[in-house]
Design goal:
Elements lengths: L6 H22 L8 H21 L9
Helix pairs in contact: 1-2
Length: 66
């Protein structure tokens, strides 16, 4: 049995991830105006890319198994 999510759920996840990323960038990232904005913005960008790749490829990065 194949339990992969459909296309619409993946698009919804990417949409929500985009909204969350924009909100976090405006609060803590490069656009926030704080002295830690560049560092936090870079960390948020790396997390965003990893989560987006996880959604696109269907990879579960937290499941460790052989």
């Amino acid at each position: 049995m194949d339990n992969r999510p459909g296309c619409l759920s993946g698009l919804l996840k990417l949409f929500l991830l985009d909204r969350l990323f924009n909100w976090l960038q405006s609060r803590f990232g490069c656009g926030s105006g704080s002295c830690f904005g560049c560092g936090c913005g870079t960390i948020l960008l790396i997390l965003f890319v990893l989560l987006a790749l996880s959604i696109i490829t269907g990879t579960d990065w937290f499941r460790i198994g052989f």
